[in-house]
Amino acid sequence: MAPVGQHDNETDRRLLLLVGLVVLSAAAAAIISAYLIWSTGTVSVGDLFTAVKLTSLVAVGATVNVQIRIRANTHGISWTEVAFLIGLAVAPAPWVVLCTGLGVGIARGIVRLPPLKLAFGVAKDMLVASAAGLALIVADWEWQTAAPDLRLVVPLAAAYLVAVILDEVIALPVIALASRTSWAHLFRANWGLRLISAAARFPLIVATLLILRTNPWMLLAVPPVVLGLHLVYSARVRARTEQQAWQRLAQATDALNVVELDTVLATAVIQATELFSADEVEVELREDRRLVRGDGATISYTGPAEGASPADGPVISAGLVGHDRGVDVGTLRLRFRGPVTFNERERYTLSTFASALCTAIRNASAYAQLARAAEEHANAAAHDALTGLANRRHLLDRGTELLGRVPNTGVVALLLVDLDHFKEVNDTLGHTAGDRVLVQVADRLKVAAEDGDLVARLGGDEFAVLLSGLPAPAVAAHRAERLLAALREPLDLDGMRLTVEASGGVAVAPGNGGMVELLRRADVAMYQAKRTGQRLADYARCRDTATLSRLNLGAGRRPVVADHEFTVNFQPIVDLGTGDVIAAEALAQWHHPEHGAVDPLRFLEEVDHCELLPTFAEAVLDQSIIAAGSWRDAGFDLAVAVNVLPRSLLDARFPSSLLARLGAYGLPPDRLVLELTEALTISQLEVVDQVLGQLRDAGVRLALDEFGSGYSSLTVLSRIPVHELKIGRTFVSGMETSTEAAAVIRSTVDLGRGLGLVVVAEGVESEPQRRALWELGCTAGQGHLFARPMPATRLLAALHRGSGGRPGTLAPPLHEEGAIIRLTQPRRTNGRDRGDRLPHLPA
């Protein structure tokens, strides 16, 4: 962008070029007019008298004008076109052109206009008069012989229209260059008033000509009439200008109603430029000597007042004071390229705008102070005053936020750190030294923590580090070890080296209970470390007395099995098309003697962590295998599906133990389906891959449970040699209202077909869901539509009873017998059919 001075010089050159072009054109018109007059041969006294009258009339029309200030330039709207159009009726066009130039020159010379403006004004009106005269000549118009009808009015109206349009075309570009204002903006400004004024003048011209046809001496009466009309028109212009000025003032002050100080200052500069038609505006604040400068389009400077470059041009200033004059916050300066004098209304507008700006600046400053105070209070409420670390409240809030975004944020864990024997530091060296120790410990933990971790002080000598984004739970212990290692080096306390010992407990975020439960578990682990003399301890449920006392699993594991408190119910899996039962899923339940039925989600994880899994796993397998054997003996060759926890798959002896149990009960391995959960975690362990491979090679079928719920992926599916995919009940319940759920089901079915896998939908509650799943290509499902979980004996009775007189079914078929249903054949892989089907399940 070119510098401002260079841009101004270029604009001035363009202005001089345009004015020169207008003046040269007018000079040519004057020479032609003079030649035409001279070529007639004689000039009579009457012609001279008419010339005097025309010159006087034009001078009056040019004198009575409305003054409009644009930037530093004042421009007038006159009645000159009325004068020379009337003159064209009583005198030849060449005389009118010359008299127009002479009359305008006299009128403008009296007020001592600058030479450039005087030359432009004379030249413009001469060209407009020439164009109007030429229009009448082309129309062959004779006003004295024309009848007082359209033959009189139409040519005159055409000439008047030419004059009005040419006047706008010549004047507006020059005014725009002189005032550094947009040509389009000038055209839009007061266009309605200009149009009404132009329309009102034409009837005056016609009426005057009709009067002159009866008595040419009535031309002397035209100036007073023009003067009277001018006064009326001027009053309307002033009223309109006043109204628009107040409207712009209201809009400008309303725009200042913002609470950000930078926005207030920038808005004030832009609004004041337009409101007062200034070339440049600047606002200087008294307190911090801050200066903002700009024009109606851009802010050219903001910063210290001492660093601003000097600005040229006359200035009109106003103090930024309140209504009571008791507060002065700075100065508003309006800068112009030429001398400008404000009228009374403009001075009042300036005072009002400055007062509004003062109020806006004070409000914005007060809001900024309140915002800073609120931020300081919020920071103090969320941080420890001594160390600057987050406090307990901030830790809980941040942890709750992270847990709400799991699994997208990875594994979340918490490390609690408690300084050992810190009381001795306070008692021996004093609390001031103790505080300095706490500050150094906080600094070391902050340095050792990774990006995204939150270090907090919970009170006293207890610290916490919230670990987020962990790729696996096992990483939490390694990160905790590194954090505690940062405290091993002695601290420097006034030249005295002090060794600080600390105990830590780390816990991984639980599936439920939120941040409060995570904090409790980390606290349990930390006290376990203190009791055992360890530097760091992981949370273990079997050592959590609160959990064990809640479930009484540790002491009651033998009675649970021996007293038959632990039972297994079975939910049938049905062919969605035929209604035939093709398998059943085993669902474990504990009937506590005091608490009643305990859901598996509440106790299976405790069982896993407290090494009670073998007992429960054997009980589940025993009851499931026995149930499948009883159904088979009754003529219903059904497979039984059993959930297996990851802990079982970590035992390399599990396959042999399981196969031995199947052999003891005489159940073929392919009648057992092991449903795998938490596939993403277990698939990362090599021993799990080996266990699953042995089970599959032996004929045991594998199913991937809750496929598509977030932890299962194509990568996992490629590693685990499964036979089935199970769609979770969440997707089934939402498939009728959620396009996303339907898309997951459709993609899962397509994937299963492509890999030759059986796809089973859980949570089928209604016939519309059953039919929709079938139409999507899902051939098997389970849910309350068919049967709720029930003991093995009740399921056997239901199989005998059947549906519609058909044993082994729990629902009527979707299609009549004999109907041809075309299904895509499953793809075979490596020469083997991975789609080993459950009995009676269509391919």
Structural account:
It is a single chain. With 843 residues, the protein is α/β, with parallel strands linked by helices. It folds into four domains: 4-245, Arp2/3 complex 21 kDa subunit ARPC3; 256-370, Beta-Lactamase, CATH 3.30.450.40; 392-539, Alpha-Beta Plaits (2-Layer Sandwich); 565-801, TIM Barrel (Alpha-Beta Barrel). It contains 29 helices and 23 strands. A hairpin with a 5-residue loop joins strand 15 (566-575) and strand 16 (581-592). Helix 9 runs parallel beside helix 11 and helix 13 packs across helix 14. Residues 1-5, 70-76, 553-564, 678-684 and 824-843 have low confidence and may be disordered.
Instruction: Identify the CATH architecture of the largest domain.
Output: Orthogonal Bundle
- Strand-pairing-aware structural class: alpha/beta
Q: How many distinct helices?
A: 29
Tell me the number of structural domains.
Answer: 4
Which CATH class of the largest domain is shown? Mainly Alpha
CATH topology of the largest domain: Arp2/3 complex 21 kDa subunit ARPC3
Instruction: Give the CA-CA distance, first to last residue.
Output: 74 Å
Q: Mean pLDDT, nearest integer?
A: 78
> Percentage of helical residues?
40-55%
DSSP strand tally: 23
Shape: elongated
Percent range for β-strand residues? 15-25%
Low-pLDDT segments, ≥5 res: 1-5, 70-76, 553-564, 678-684, 824-843
Strand order of the largest sheet: 15-16-18-19-20-21-22-23
Largest sheet: 8 strands, mixed, barrel
Any idea what the radius of gyration is? 48 Å
